[in-house]
Design brief:
It comes from Anaeromyxobacter oryzae. This protein is α+β, with helices and mostly antiparallel strands and 832 residues long. It has five domains: 192 residues, 2-Layer Sandwich (Beta-Lactamase), CATH 3.30.450; 152 residues, PAS domain (Beta-Lactamase); 102 residues, PAS domain (Beta-Lactamase), CATH 3.30.450; 196 residues, Rossmann fold; 113 residues, no CATH class.
Length: 832
C-alpha cells in the first residue's frame, strides 16, 4: 500500500439510493457498474472466486487504480511481519487475500496489518469507513511521491461486516475524485460484498462438513461390514411392501443379493409367513417387537432372535421395518445383549447397520451415534440457508435435500428421493433439455449449471438456476455432487419482458409512418397538442379519434414519450389486422395446448406491456367476446390467458384509436356501451389534413428532405404551382396519402425542383369532404368560372360570413391558394 492507507476525513457512510432522472449521469453509470460487479460476485460460491471478482471488478469495471481485501485471521507470520513491533498481542491481524490493479502481490510490508494499526487496521477496529479526496494534503500519508507518480486522487476503505461479525477490510484508490454519493454507493457495495463473503464461507463450511461426513460414513460402513461379517448377526431393512432394501452378513446363509426380494422367496413357507406377520404388526402399530424363530439350516434347526423396529420417514410416518437377527443357539447371553444394543442403535439411525460382537459392537454403535450428531449439525446448518441445497450420489440420484427444498415442493425426503420424482417437481417442457444437460455435466465430472422451472407446493412454477459441484476423494474419485438452486424468476421475467419489448420496438419501427415529430402549426393541431400535453403525464385512458391517415399512432407515441412510463415499452396492436379467432390470444396470451397449434405458453401484448403503455389501434374492430375481456382489464387491471383460469395482474396504461364513430356503433349494437365509456375518458380528435392546409407546406418540406436523403437526391426548391395544387386538394387519405404522393414524386424526380404530376390528384369526390369536392372534381373544367362567380357575388370579399370561401364551402386559405394559382384578380370585383 506504500503507506497510503488513510484519508483526510472520517465519514460514517449511510447507503443512499441514487435518484433516477431522465438523463444518465456519471453517478448513475457508476451505480450501474457497481450493480454489474455485484451480480458477478453473487454467482461465485468459492471464497477465492468471490474475493477475485470483487477486486477485479473494482479495477476493471470501475477503473480503480488499486483494490485490496484483507480478512482477519490468526497471527501466523509474526516473526516475518514488518509491523510486528506495533502489534502488542501478535495473535490476530488482517491478512491480505486479494489484490488487483497496481499490484497483485499478496506479500510485502502490508501483507499483514495488525487490527488497530494504520488506517486499514483502524477501519477494522472501529468499524468505520475512511474516505478521502485530498491524498496529497493529508499529513498521515507517508509516500506522497507514490501518490503523485500514480496520479491518485481518492481513497475509500470500508469494514467488511455481517451482523456482529467483522471479518475484514475493503480498500481502493481512484485516479479521480469521488462524489459523496459514489462513496455511499461503494459503501452499499461493500455491504453486499460482506454478504457474498459470508455466504461463500458458509458454503465452504457446509462442503467441508459434507466431505467429512461422507468420509466418516464410508469408513463406518466398512467397519460395520467387517464387524458383521465375522459375527452371528444379520442386519436388514425392508420397505412397506416387505421387500428387502439391504441385508448385511455375507457369511450367513443369507447374502447381500436379496434387494427387492420377499421373505417368501428366501425362507420355507411356515417361516416366511410367521416373519411376515410379525413385520406387518410393526408396520401397523409402529411399535418394536421381538420374536424367536427356528429356521432349517444345513439339515439342522437354528434358533434366531429377531428384533424388529419401525423405520420412519422425515415426517414420522412408518415406511418400513429395520431388523436384527441373532443366532442364539451358539452364542452366549453377553453376545445377545450386545446384539440388542446394536438393534437399539439401528432403530435410531436405520440407514447404518450392525457391528462386531463384544466390545467392537459397542464401539461401532458409539461411532454411529457420533456420526448421527455430526449429521444433525450439518442438517441444521443447511436447513438455515434460504436456498435450495441438494446432495447427489455420483450417478445423480438424490441423497439429501435441505428444508428449503421440502418446504418449497411440499414433499418429504423419501418422495424427493423416489424414482421419477423429477416429473412431479420440474416443468414438463424443461425435463428433456435439463435432464440431457445434467447427464452430460455428470459425465464430464466438472462443475456445470442449468436453468429450469420447479413446481411450488401451490402448483405454480418458478425458474431456478442450478449449479452442480463435484466432491472428490484424495484419489480423484467423485464421492458426491452438491447442487445449489437459486430462484431467478424475476430475472427470467425481466429477460422475457425485454425480449418482447425489443420485438415490439422493431414492430413499431416497421409500422411507423416515418415521422419523428408531429409537423404543423395550424390552429387545429395546436389545440390537439395543448390537450396532449395535459393528459400525457397522467395515467388516464385516452381515445384518439380521427380519419385514416391523420397520424393517430403518432399522437399515441407522443403521449407515451411524455408520460412517466416513457422508459418502458409502448406495445402497439392493430386490432383490425388480427383474425377474430386469434385476437384474445394476441392480447392476453395463451397456455400450452389451449388450442390447436398452441405448442408452448405465449405471453400476450398486455402482459408484455406491464409497467408501460399499450396502444390499441382500430379498437372499434374488436369482436364482441374480446370487448368483454378488455373491459375487465380496464376495470380490474387483470385478465386470464386463453386456456387458463388463473388471473394475471398488470399495470398498463391504455391508449386506443379508431376512425369509426363509436357512438354510432354503440347505437347499432356492435360496440359495448360500457366499454365505450371506459375508453372515452379523455377523447382527442385529430383534424383531417383538409382542415389544416397551412400545415401542408411544412409537411411537404419535411417529407422531401427525408425521402430525398433516402434516395440520394438533392431537391432545392418546390414548384409554386405544385404547392398550390397540394394545398387545394382535399386529401381523403390525409397525411398518409400526402406522404405517398411526396415519396413517389421524389423517386421520379430527375431535377432539383420538386414537382407533382397533377393527374395524381384528379380523382373522384371524397365522401368525407363534400364542400371541397365541388372544386376538386372540376379542376380541369370550370374551377376558374366557379371562383370568379363567387367573387362577383360577394363583391370581391374572400373571408367572413359573406365571403366567397363560405359561399363555395371551402376554407379561406384554400380559396386564396387557388386564386393565386389561377392568377385571378379578386380586386376587380370589389366595389366602393
Amino acid at each position: 500500500m506504500h503507506g497510503v492507507d488513510t484519508g483526510s476525513e472520517f465519514r460514517t457512510v449511510v447507503p443512499v439510493v441514487p435518484s433516477h432522472s431522465g438523463s444518465v449521469t456519471p453517478t448513475d453509470k457508476f451505480q450501474r457498474t457497481l450493480d454489474r460487479v455485484t451480480l458477478r460476485m453473487a454467482g461465485a460460491l468459492d471464497l477465492r472466486a468471490v474475493l477475485s471478482e470483487i477486486t477485479r471488478g473494482l479495477t476493471e469495471d470501475l477503473e480503480a487504480a488499486l483494490a485490496r481485501i484483507w480478512l482477519i485471521g490468526a497471527g501466523d507470520m509474526c516473526t516475518h511481519c514488518a509491523l510486528a513491533a506495533q502489534c502488542p498481542e501478535r495473535s490476530r491481524c488482517l491478512h491480505l487475500v486479494a489484490s488487483a490493479g497496481l499490484s497483485e502481490r499478496l506479500d510485502g510490508m502490508y501483507g499483514r496489518i495488525p487490527v488497530g494499526v494504520l488506517k486499514v487496521g483502524a477501519i477494522a477496529a472501529a468499524r468505520e469507513a475512511v474516505c478521502s479526496n485530498s491524498l496529497l494534503e493529508d499529513a498521515r500519508i507517508t509516500d506522497k511521491a507514490w501518490v503523485r507518480r500514480e496520479g491518485l486522487a481518492a481513497f475509500a476503505g470500508y469494514p467488511l461486516t455481517f451482523g456482529d461479525e467483522v471479518f475484514g477490510v475493503l480498500a481502493m484508490f481512484a485516479r479521480r475524485a469521488l462524489t459523496d454519493l459514489e462513496f455511499e454507493q461503494i459503501a452499499v457495495f461493500a455491504a453486499q460484498a460482506s454478504a457474498a463473503i459470508k455466504n461463500a464461507r458458509l458454503f465452504e463450511r457446509v462442503s467441508r462438513m459434507l466431505q467429512q461426513l461422507q468420509t466418516e460414513n464410508a469408513y463406518l460402513k466398512e467397519e460395520l461390514r467387517q464387524g458383521i461379517a465375522h459375527s452371528n448377526i444379520v442386519v436388514f431393512q425392508q420397505d412397506a411392501d416387505l421387500r428387502y432394501r439391504w441385508m448385511y452378513n455375507p457369511q450367513s446363509f443369507m447374502s447381500e443379493e436379496v434387494a427387492g426380494k420377499t421373505d417368501a422367496e428366501l425362507f420355507p413357507p411356515e417361516v416366511a409367513a410367521r416373519m411376515a406377520a410379525a413385520k406387518r404388526r410393526v408396520l401397523e402399530s409402529g411399535q418394536a417387537t421381538h420374536d424367536e424363530l427356528r429356521v432349517p439350516r444345513n439339515g439342522e434347526s437354528t434358533l434366531f432372535q429377531i428384533d424388529l423396529h419401525p423405520f420412519r420417514d422425515a415426517a414420522g410416518a412408518v415406511v418400513g421395518v429395520t431388523g436384527v437377527s441373532t443366532d442364539i443357539t451358539r452364542e452366549t447371553r453377553v453376545q445377545q445383549e450386545l446384539a440388542q444394543a446394536l438393534a437399539f442403535r439401528v432403530s435410531s439411525h436405520p440407514t447404518l447397520g450392525g457391528g462386531e460382537t463384544g466390545i467392537a459392537t459397542l464401539r461401532v454403535a458409539e461411532r454411529t451415534a457420533e456420526l448421527a450428531a455430526a449429521n444433525e449439525e450439518l442438517r441444521r446448518v443447511t436447513d438455515a440457508i434460504p436456498q435450495a441445497i441438494l446432495v447427489l450420489a455420483p450417478d445423480g440420484s438424490t441423497v439429501y435435500v435441505n428444508a428449503f427444498v421440502l418446504a418449497y415442493t411440499g414433499l418429504n425426503l423419501d418422495e424427493v428421493k423416489a424414482e421419477g420424482s423429477h416429473e412431479k417437481i420440474f416443468h414438463p417442457d424443461d425435463l428433456e433439455r435439463a435432464w440431457h444437460e445434467r447427464q452430460m455435466g455428470l459425465s464430464r465430472g466438472e462443475p456445470f449449471e442449468t436453468e429450469l422451472r420447479a413446481r411450488r407446493r401451490d402448483g405454480q412454477y418458478r425458474w431456478f438456476l442450478v449449479r452442480y459441484h463435484p466432491l472428490r476423494s484424495e484419489s480423484g474419485e467423485i464421492l458426491r455432487w452438491y447442487a445449489t438452486a437459486t430462484d431467478i424468476e424475476d430475472r427470467r421475467r425481466t429477460e422475457e419482458r425485454v425480449r418482447i419489448e425489443n420485438l415490439a420496438l422493431r414492430d413499431e419501427i416497421d409500422h411507423s409512418n416515418m415521422f419523428d415529430e408531429i409537423v404543423g402549426s395550424s390552429e387545429g393541431l395546436r389545440r390537439v397538442l395543448a390537450r396532449l400535453a395535459k393528459v400525457a403525464p397522467t395515467d388516464s385512458t385516452v381515445l384518439i379519434v380521427g380519419e385514416t391517415g391523420t397520424g393517430k399512432e403518432l399522437i399515441a407515441r407522443a403521449i407515451h414519450k411524455r408520460s412517466s412510463r416513457a422508459s418502458r415499452a409502448l406495445i402497439r396492436v392493430n386490432c383490425a389486422a388480427i383474425p377474430s379467432s386469434l385476437v384474445a390470444s394476441e392480447l392476453f396470451g395463451h397456455e400450452k395446448g389451449a388450442f390447436t397449434g398452441a405448442l408452448q405458453r405465449r405471453v400476450g401484448r398486455f402482459e408484455a406491456a406491464d409497467g408501460g403503455t399499450i396502444f390499441l389501434d382500430e379498437v372499434g374492430d374488436l369482436p364482441a367476446e374480446t370487448q368483454v375481456a378488455l373491459l375487465r382489464v380496464l376495470q380490474e387491471r387483470e385478465f386470464e390467458r386463453v386456456g387458463s383460469s388463473r388471473p394475471v395482474s398488470v399495470d398498463v396504461r391504455v391508449l386506443a384509436a379508431t376512425h369509426r364513430d363509436l357512438s354510432a356503433a354503440v347505437q347499432a349494437g356492435t360496440f359495448r356501451e360500457d366499454l365505450f365509456f371506459r375508453l372515452n375518458v379523455f377523447p382527442l380528435e385529430i383534424p383531417p389534413l383538409r382542415e389544416r392546409p397551412d400545415d401542408i407546406p411544412l409537411l411537404v418540406e419535411y417529407m422531401i428532405e427525408r425521402y430525398a436523403k433516402k434516395a440520394g437526391k438533392r431537391i432545392k426548391s418546390i414548384e409554386e404551382d405544385t404547392l398550390e395544387m397540394l394545398r387545394a386538394y382535399a386529401w381523403p387519405g390525409n397525411v398518409r396519402e400526402l406522404q405517398n404522393v411526396v415519396e413517389r414524386a421524389v423517386i421520379l424526380s430527375d431535377a432539383d425542383t420538386f414537382v407533382v404530376d397533377d393527374s395524381w390528384l384528379k380523382r373522384g369526390a371524397s365522401k368525407a369532404s363534400p364542400p371541397a369536392a365541388s372544386i376538386t372534381g372540376t379542376l380541369a373544367a370550370n374551377e376558374r368560372e366557379l371562383i370568379e362567380a363567387a367573387l362577383a357575388a360577394c363583391k370581391g370579399r374572400v373571408a367572413g360570413a359573406a365571403g366567397a370561401a363560405v359561399r363555395l364551402g371551402i376554407p379561406r386559405q384554400t380559396l386564396d391558394s387557388r386564386i393565386r394559382a389561377l392568377h385571378i384578380d379578386k380586386y376587380k370585383y370589389k366595389t366602393s
